[in-house]
Amino acid sequence: MNNSSDRYKPMGDLARPNHKHVNQTKVLLDDEFEDLLRCAARIHRTPKSVLAREVLKSWLLSLASDSKSDSHAA
User: Fold this and answer.
1) How many CB atoms sit inside 10 A of residue 53's CB?
2) How far apart are CA 60 and CA 64, in angstroms?
3) How far apart are CA 55 and CA 57, in angstroms?
């Protein structure tokens, strides 16, 4: 993995033994949400990309949980 050619590959192309899967998703945000994300990242002292990933994961898990609750109620 320490080949000199590895440093020029995108992150998704590199072997990462501590991760099962690494997938990249790009999103386009309007200025308002970009500013909110940037400010929240600064407040939490975390990279913007890390915060965006955690927010998206949390929302998806909540959505899945709500969906399960709705199916049990029916």
Assistant:
1) 13
2) 6
3) 6
